[in-house]
Design brief:
This protein has helices spanning 3-12, 19-42, 47-58, 63-76, 81-99, 115-138, 141-157, 165-182, 188-192, 198-227, 235-264, 283-290, 298-307, 313-318, 322-334, 406-414, 423-430; strands spanning 311-312, 345-348, 369-373, 379-385, 391-392, 395-396, 436-445, 448-457, 470-477, 480-488, 498-501. It has 504 residues and is an alpha+beta fold.
Length: 504
Amino acid sequence: MDKRIEEYLDSVVPERLSKRRKMLIREELRDHISDHIDFYTEIGYSEDESIQKALADMGDDGGVTAMVKKDFEKVYGEKIWMPILAFVLTILVIFTAVSCGIFVTMVESKGSPQAYEVFVSFVIVFAMSLALAVIYRKGLKKTLLAMGIAHLLSGATVLYSGYSQPAIYALISDIGFLLEKTTSLITYKFASEQELVNEYISFIAGIVLDIGLALVSLILFIRLRKKGTPEKKSKKGIIITASVLCAAAIGLTFMYTGTEEFYRSYKYVMNGKKFETSDGICKQSEAAFESIDLGMDYNEAVRRLRVQGYMPFDEYRKTQSREMSKRLKYSLGELELTVTDEGYTVFINPNIFYDDNDIYGRNGSNGFVYLRADSDGCVESKGVGSGAAVKDKYGYVPDHHSGGSGGRDCYHNFKTVRAGDSRDEVMKKLAGEDGDIFARFLTLKNGEESEYCRVSHAGKGSPDEIYYPVVAELWFENGKLSDAKLYCLGEYVYNETRVYELQK
């Protein structure tokens, strides 16, 4: 084809159009020019003259060419309403999603999202991403930029960058779940610390995603200006991509429901209906504890425990699946069994199961028993119950108690006890009728017997009373109080545990 024809086509076909659109227009114009050339050739003009006259007919005088080019842009180019509509719709979707509760954390924590919130969040995220890809392939530069500005405003305002948070939250949980199932990692601690991990990560990631989509929009905008619209592929690819993303949204949401259920029951493997343990001292563990005498042969003591169905905790863990072993290990740590660092062996009875009718776990659940041997192979120390009260992120909270005024009374009575007071007197004041003695350790060393115990009260509030859940640590030497600590958690002070020392 003559160079003059190609130059004419270059001048009249707008650059802003997609490659496919430009190709079609060029082919159509080329056909028109060829028809004119054929006409002039047939009536006797030379080929060179025919080309000149054909181009003149098409309007190569500059003014006409510019008009034709403008008309093409008007018919086939990006309409002015497109970027406006894209901006408004993007902002509207973001605002509506957040207004309907599709977020995890903004001004305050909302907690774990519901399954439908996760699904909607995934759909919006995938739809936004797919929309950017489609707009880019169509060569709509201004529309692309408008969407980018909308996402930038969303990320910058923080308040409205929440629509992606449920999806990100679910993704974090699902990844943790897969790691839990397939590796030796214990991910519950990570997954359960929602305020410190999932929620904060979701919050930050939501802002990053908005700003990231804005940057992607800008990059694609610059690419369109430099290289023009990319060659279009079949619509089938868009349909397949959309179908895959929809399936991913459904699959990840479905997986999230299982993940949430898994983590909700995670820590209760040792404190629920399936297995077996009490936070404190149950009748079975107390009987096992009383069957052991300080100073007796350690192996004999172990034999007595095994006769009653007890076995070392680590031995029991080895009989379980990897997943169950990890859950048991975590649960043991949650019970704050710090005494295990002092050479104790922890024993459990895996044949004792939870009783639905025993809300305190005293009759139908499994307390721990501890033994420690001295250098002569004799029982130097024995213990029963848990090493600490159930502990949450706020401090020691004995949530296995129904309450009463014991917490308040224990708080006030603690100020009256002194070193040297008799054990019976101290326990009457600090345990009373409502206290739960959930840990006892007896130690015989150098002929001196010492005792350590923990007492908990849930407490009870009224209009004129302060709610005091408390945990008291008590140390006795030869039946006399030697030291004590009180961990006190006020009703409205959940961010700190107040610790009171014994006045000596």
